[in-house]
Structures are given as structure tokens and as C-alpha cells.
Amino acid sequence: MHSFDTIIIGAGPAGLSCAALLARQGRSVLVLEKNREIGPKVCAGGITWSGLREAIPESLVERRFQEQRIFSRLQRVTIKAAVPMVVTVDRGRLGRWMRDQAATAGAEIRSGCRVEAIGAATVATTAGEFGYTHLVGADGSNSLVRRHLDLPRQRVGIGLQFWLEKTLPDMEWHIDAGRFAGGYAWIFPHGRRSSVGIYAGRGLLQPRELRARLLGWAQERGLSLKGLQPEAYLINYDYRGSRFGKVHLVGDAAGLASPLTGEGI
């Protein structure tokens, strides 16, 4: 059995960032990702300027937005800044770039490797058993590592989006408490397409009703989403700590997303 100083479960932005940082410090790191392809995820792909944006190359940026258009029932506001407040990226390209950064730093990355059981010092996977000194759960809102720690996950949001095969001019946020149950609808333009979606706390609106309200709102905006396949995802913002002895949680597994906007990366 091969042992590592740190095993990281999940190869999203949090897990790959962790892997690169530890590997650069000379630690032996293994990243386990259940999907064969690293990167793609149901996500609108917006990154704040003050967050991850300054850590990625310009080549990954699809659109830059120095203006944010915010709509409510009472007013329309445009917020402007000297630098882009938000940029959009393709999650597949971002994931592949972060994978390469972690691998170059010395981390071992195994995709298509599903974790089947977590022990006190071992992880059993479809590729065999591995030992660890430290374990990092970076495996998203439905984290296996979080369940291993027996941590509840009660405060969760749900996002639902459609990809419109054209790029729209502006990034927009639409706030309507009556229609979106305290959440909001969005338009996030990318290079050749645009994410049109809705976010709300789970339990406030059922997925079917969430979809119906998004379709109705989009139709009013002159956006035809008929025939398009929706994507849905859970966003965990139920933070209950990040360090539990030699087991750690990061990203959505830790519940670090914003409960207000659902923003994580």
C-alpha cells in the first residue's frame, strides 16, 4: 500500500489549489477525483476580481465586466469600477490548467478513481487502498469526507441554469423576493454563450417551481430557453469548521460558499 502525507479527495479549484501549495512545500500529495475528466462542473463560471481572478492567466478569461447591472422591482442600478469586478471562465479549461499546475508542483493526480470507504489512516478506492497522514475533503456540497465526519448539511442553496448559445452584452443580477424567494436570477455572458440561471435557498422553492419561475422570467426578458437542457446543483453554505484533527474540509465541502450569492470559487 502506497502512503502519502496528504490525500485530497476532489479535484475542483479548492482541492487542486491545496495540492499545489502542499506539493511546493515538499509534501507527498495524492489527489483523487471520481470523474475521468477534471474541470467541468455545473457552474455559471463567474470569478470575482479580488478572489481567484488574480491567480489565473489572462488566457483563461472569457469576458471581463467593469459594470454590474442589478435589477429589482423598484429600481435598476449600474455599478461601475476601474477594474473588472467579475470575469467569466470556462470551468473545463480552468480545471485543466489547475490540474497541470498541481502536477508540475509534484502532486500525483488520479482521475476516474472513486473513493469507496474512508478509514482512520487509509482510503479505499476503485484503484486500491492508500494510506494518509492528513486527509482533505474537497469533494463538493455532497462531500463524502464531510459525511465521514458525521457533520450535518442543513443550510444549502440550489442553482439552476441554462446555457444560451449566444453571448449577451451585460452581466445582470435580478432580485425579486416574491418571485425568487430571497434568491436571484442571473445572466453571465461567456465567450460564445451565456449562462442564464436562478439561485435560491433549498426548501424555499422546489426544483420544478424554480425551473418554472426561471422560464417565466426569461420569457419576459425575451430570452427563449425552450428545448434547452437545464443543469442543477447544490451549494453548501453550512460551515461547521474546517479542521478536525488530521481531517480537513475546504471549498463547498466545508460550506464556504456565500449564502447570499452562492459564490464559491
In short:
The protein is an alpha/beta fold and 265 residues long. The chain is 20% helix and 36% strand.
Description:
The model has no long low-confidence stretch (mean pLDDT 94). The chain starts with a strand and ends in an 11-residue tail after the last helix. The protein is globular. The chain has 265 residues and is of the alpha/beta class. Helix content is 20%, strand content 36%. A hairpin with a 4-residue loop joins strand 14 and strand 15 (194-201). Helix 1 (13-24) packs parallel to helix 2 (91-105). Strands 1, 2, 8, 9, 10, 11, 17 and 18 form an 8-stranded mixed sheet that branches.
Protein traits:
265 residues, alpha/beta, eight-stranded mixed beta sheet, seven-stranded mixed beta sheet, 6 helices
Radius of gyration equals 19 Å
- Total helices: the number is 6
Helix and strand string, N-terminal first? EHEEEEEEHEEEEHEEHEEHEEEH
Q: How would you state the average pLDDT, rounded?
A: 94
Counting DSSP E segments of at least 2 residues, the number of strands comes to 18
Q: Beta fraction of the residues?
A: 35-45%
Low-pLDDT stretches are none
* Residues in helix, %: 10-25%
Summarize the main sheet: 8 strands, mixed
SS-based class: alpha/beta
Termini separation: 34 Å
Shape: globular
